[in-house]
Amino acid sequence: MGRMVTQSAALAAVDLLAEHRTSLTALAKRERVHVATVWRWTTRGCRGIRLASFSVGSRRFTTDEAFARWIAAINGERVVSGCTPKQREAAVNRAKRELADEGI
Fold it and tell me: What domain range includes position 66?
């Protein structure tokens, strides 16, 4: 079997704890799949790419942003900056508001 490719390199600059945390159960309900499917995405991956996750106590979590990056990756999209287009747009809008507040 081939070597499993993880998103660890892509996640080096991404702080999962700073993102919007969601439990694997909540993600399964939202995506209408069995929780075992989401668990498998975090352990075995899909198409050679694992969904980033972390534990807090005995519970396992991922983030909405990590899920969006994972979906993009398994569908062949390049996620260069480690954030989704929606996140990038929100960051640009936030920067524009901050500049406007400063009068620049």
Answer: 8-101
